[in-house]
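Quick question, first post here. What does this chain look like in 3D?
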Amino acid sequence: MNNTQEFKVLNITGSQTETIQVNNEIVAIVPVAPTFKTPPKNEPSKGRLWRQEKMNTWRYLMAAGLVAGLALHGLIRFGGTYTIGGMLLGKAVAATPTNNSNLNTSIATSKQSKSTAANPLATKLINGVPVPDWSKINFESMKFSSSGEFEFPNIPGVKMKGKRVWEAGQSLADVMQLGDFAETDFKIENLNLNQISKITGASLKNLKLSDFEVLKWQSLGSLTEAVPGLEALDVADIPAIDDLVTKVTGDATTSMTIEEALDNYPQLEKAELGKYLNLEEYKLTSIPVLDKVALNKFENWESTTIGKIPGLGKVPFNQLPGVPVPDMSFVGKVDIVLKQVENGRWKSISGSYQEGFNVPCNNGKCAHIEVAGSPILTGAAWMSGKFQKVSGGFGILKAVNGGKEPTGRHPFGKSFKQVIWDVNEADGSITTAMFFRFCKTIPFMGRTCTPYFIGPVPFFTYYEKDPIILGAPLTVPKKSIP
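> Answer (accepted):
Ran it through. Tokens below.
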């Protein structure tokens, strides 16, 4: 080859997909590196990656510790009544009812479980706070733990049983009357026998007129006013009314409506069935539509004993027209339990509707609990009603029991009063009890009620650090009142 011969070189720098045209003048193809390079990626070093991963781990641990600290603070300070979301947002989270039977495993070793197990009533929890499980409670299941009695004042023209007596072990159904719960959350006077039988599953077919106590003092006139359409029926078609008309008038009626009988014999207007008839001889269903009449339509319905209304004592409270709703506006914590050697307690949050709920204790037997849960509540005292009595009742019946009732609060409304009863400083526990009152509406005088002193009926047991519903109104004295 001639050394002076020239070589033509083609530089190939395009992409691999380009087509290269080669002619006969090219004697060699030499790969040549491009004259420009792609800049290298700016990747972090392994040391920097390790330090960044370590910082992320510390951040995660710090966040988890903060959440755990908030949870522990909430459990200690609020006794389980608030959630983390509530503390972060600055308000209580809406309560979610939880059935106690579903919590037996999870809270079996906790103090709250100990408190719940000691309760004589069926219980459920709302945000860790015990409340009655009304679906499992009725008037027959609530029992008096001790005996008592009182006599009513003699009020002319008013039909009231002269004495009210209760024995330990008796139920509310045996002692309490419809009028005792009038104008409360229960609204039991709005029920009728048909509704009650459907709730309890009991049949009315085999019952007698004597089983429905309110009929004893119904006259033919009042019965006609209570039962719609009764006056249009023939006297002879209703055995009890046929016998009543015959005994009162001395005449046997053949074809006469009840309305005509009342027009022809005015004395039937006030003739009471229980006075002239043996009501055990007649079926309850023999009087048409009787089972569809609301209890408060009958004359003197307030004086009817709950247990003398077929099936009413067995109706679960959550099946009544109304049920006492716990007032969760103020929930505290049992902080300290102190026995009756205490005295001069002025920071009181207990009392009565009549005397207010800041009644101090200076009788030398000021057993009480101190509550906590907020800076305002700390040190506030709920006195034991076993040792301190306060004014109660209104109207004529205010004088019953000397006008006194145990001190306490009403976190469940007017149906009953919650009273701290036995105080055990040794194990830091208290028992509470329910106390009831008797009420009556007197013509031309209006409604009147005795103090809340009919009891005690065992309620909840609490231990130190347990949550307790305080309800409203709630004011805490800032200094002693002279």
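Residues 168-319 form one domain.
The chain has a mean pLDDT of 80.
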